[in-house]
Amino acid sequence: MRPLLLAFGLLTLAAPAFAQDDTAPPAPGPVTVSPAEGNWGCIALVDNTKAGLLTIFAGAYGYASATYGSSASGSGTAQMGSDGIKFLDGNLTTVGVTYGLVTLDPATNGDLLTLYNPEKPILACTPR
Hints:
The chain has helices at about 1-15, 90-95; strands at about 40-45, 50-55, 60-65, 75-80, 85, 100-105, 110-115, 120-125. By secondary structure, the chain is mainly beta.
C-alpha cells in the first residue's frame, strides 16, 4: 500500500500546475507606440535622390515631398504597428504607399523605415 501512495504522490508532484483563474488573458489592444513614430528623411529607391520629410505621431502622418507640387505631400491617418505602420488614408495612399516597416540599417546600425507600394519598396527613410 505504501509504494502505491508514494507513486501517487510523485505523480501529483509531476502533474502540471493549473492557474486559479481559467479565463483567457485579455486580447491585446491596438499598438499605441510604434518604432515608426518620429521624424524621417526619405530618399527615393529608384534613383537615390531626396524624396521628402515624413512625420508620424499617434496614428497620424504628414509628408512633405521634395518635389514641388507633388500630390504625395499632405497628411493622413495610419495604423501603428509593432514593426512599422499601415497607411489608412491621405496623400501617401493616393500615390500608392500602403505600409512601412522599420528594420535595422546595416550601413549605420540605426533604424530604417522602408515605405512600400503593393509591388515593391519605394522610399527609404532614416531618423531626423
